[in-house]
Design goal:
Strand content: 15-25%
Largest sheet: 6 strands, antiparallel
Shape: globular
Structural class: alpha+beta
Order of helices and strands: EHHEEEEHEHHEEH
Number of helices: 6
Radius of gyration: 17 Å
Number of strands: 8
Length: about 210
């Protein structure tokens, strides 16, 4: 499936610019429940422990935490199978780090994204927390998931993501596809299966990475 730029999603600019997706310090504080100091401290400690486990596992497996042509190719294949404009292989490190990235050409008129994003934004943190796939055929159909800064930053209408879970139980990150077009609900299962299968391919690739 191919898409041509639609006017609502064109970015008026004289030269393509890379969008630095929302970073720390840009959290929307106007919505959501207040978190107690104790809960916030506990969450930070848990995050630090999980981060250390990811780094230790990636080092033990010999997997680099930087952008990779192999992961870019996996992201592209996943996006093309789904018919989505953007595809990501996303490791949860200090920031969400897109070691695999597929997106429109720089002169397409669509938003061009960078390789990192804060843990505070997007739907991949939900995928990591729930440890299972999240299919959103239309992000505006759910109040819980429509209030997201990335919706406005990139103009997203559909998201499908799946976790990257090692045999040890450690969640390394996610694979996901996003697009400015919503999808029929009837396609949700097929698209969910595409990202789940892509996640399995990424983990298979990681498992067969030569140990340094």
């Amino acid at each position: 499936m191919s898409y041509q730029p639609n006017e609502p999603y064109l970015v008026p600019q004289t030269a393509p610019a890379t969008l630095a997706l929302p970073q720390r310090g840009m959290r929307d504080t106007t919505h959501g429940p207040t978190v107690s100091a104790h809960a916030a401290t506990s969450q930070r400690a848990q995050h630090a422990t999980e981060l250390a486990r990811r780094y230790e596992l990636l080092a033990r497996l010999g997997v680099p935490s930087a952008a990779s042509e192999d992961f870019d190719e996996l992201a592209r294949d996943m996006a093309e199978q789904a018919g989505f404009l953007y595809g990501f292989v996303n490791l949860f490190l200090e920031e969400q780090t897109f070691v695999g990235l597929h997106q429109p050409a720089a002169d397409s008129g669509y938003v061009i994204v960078g390789r990192t994003m804060s843990h505070d934004h997007g739907w991949c943190p939900e995928v990591v927390a729930r440890r299972k796939a999240l299919p959103l055929h239309d992000v505006h159909a759910s109040p819980r998931f429509s209030g997201n800064h990335v919706v406005d930053a990139v103009g997203i209408r559909s998201y499908f993501g799946a976790p990257l879970i090692h045999d040890s139980g450690t969640v390394l990150g996610t694979v996901c596809v996003i697009d400015p077009e919503k999808r029929p609900l009837s396609e949700a299962r097929r698209l969910r299966d595409i990202v789940i299968n892509a996640g399995a391919q990424v983990m298979d690739h990681i498992a067969h990475t030569p140990v340094r």
